[in-house]
Amino acid sequence: MAVTAAAADERKQLRRAVVASTVGTSIEWYDFFLYSTATGLLFAKLFFPKSDPLVGTLQAFLIYAVGFIARPIGAAIFGHYGDRIGRKATLIATLLLMGVATFLIGFVPTYATIGIWGAVLLVVLRFTQGIGVGGEWGGSVLLSMEWGHRGRRGLIASWPQFGVPVGLFLANGALLIMSNIAGKEGFASWGWRVPFYFSIVLVGVGLYVRLRVLETPLFQRLVEQRRIERAPVGEVIRRNWREILQSAFLRLSEQAPFYIFTAYVFTYGTEVLKQSRNFVLYAVLAASVLSFFSIPLFGYLSDRLGRKRVYMAGVAIMGVWGFVYFGLLDTKVAVLMFLAIFVSLIPHDLQYGPQAALIAESYTGRLRYSGASLGYQLASVIAGGPAPVIAAALYGGATFFGVKVGGYKTSLAIAWYILVCAVISFIAAATVKDRSKQDISIEYDEQPAAAQPIAAGLRPTQQST
Length: 465
Prior knowledge:
Elements: H1 2-47, H2 53-84, H3 87-105, H4 111-114, H5 117-145, H6 153-191, H7 193-211, H8 217-224, H9 232-250, H10 252-272, H11 277-305, H12 307-329, H13 334-342, H14 346-360, H15 368-384, H16 386-396, E1 398-400, E2 403-405, H17 412-431, H18 451-455
Antiparallel strand pairs: 1-2
Helix pairs in contact: 1-2, 1-3, 1-5, 1-6, 1-7, 1-10, 2-3, 2-5, 2-15, 2-16, 3-5, 3-7, 5-6, 5-15, 6-11, 6-14, 9-15, 9-17, 10-11, 10-12, 10-14, 10-15, 10-16, 10-17, 11-12, 11-13, 11-14, 12-13, 12-14, 12-17
């Protein structure tokens, strides 16, 4: 009877952990995507009105990229505390930081009011957003995965990933509603600010949910065994630098196309293809709804078929999808354009569903928050942040340090960029060790595989994890 009660309580805590992770990440990504969508729609006109439209777009996306540069910094800061004081407390801090920064963006004056200082304030708040989201992902995944059963880790860890399409849906939906309520002129002057104000309400909801969940049993066991690392970030870089680089590079074909399909598409759709803002918003909304189902589905399939097999299939499909996607968009046929955007995230979801478990399983428990966060967020510097900037430069051209680059005036250049990302990711994913069947509750250097080095006179902690 006691065993049954304990099992029931564990299932209850697992449900709470999954809900807390999913709700929290949904709110965090709402905050992050709100800025992304607003950038593609109107920030160039509001904060860089004196620039050429293409140059203004590039400048707005450069501020957008600041959030991605900050994410590895947030990963290092909160990875340290996540491995030192616990997953739960760290996640509460990231939620507050992200929510307050997003709320304050709604108050930033435009160029017409304070000139270039509006853009400066955006840079500061966008950087703060990046710090918050940099620490969020690792903790939310571990909060779910470390409560879960080893046979369902792919599915359980995919639920925090589910927060991405939810956040995307909420952000685009909020801007769409305000666009219809305020009208074109009202939306540009005050309507865009309302969704940013609403962020503070969502933070209250997220805090309520996260305060009710318990710390993961794996971390509690590490505390009891006094296995907490003094400097987990430095230790994981020393021991697992290969895994960190693998984690970053395998994300190239997932993250770079995602931000092209969900951020740059607003600029490409409205400025290049001359489609209405609402048409693109509705199409991206539909794509995010489809991801509600596909992300957990592919997480589940990774438990059945293996993480690497599902992930590498997604990478291969993404390599050719860029050409199909832009080919359909460039027809300017409404049905084909909507179809392209609607299914655009499926190749992404094939990777994103199993990705959380694939990355987090690469690191032993006492270093997992730091390692997974660093690997995941390092990709933001080489993939997510630069992707819309690179896409805008490839199409419209840009000058960096006096050198003119891009300006091909064809979407084929962007499709080739996606293919290059896919080739790099395929190589990286092929080198990752699949630990989908391994017991992650035991430190990797204490498992049977460590027996031979121990017999040779080495201590377990001398091994690479």
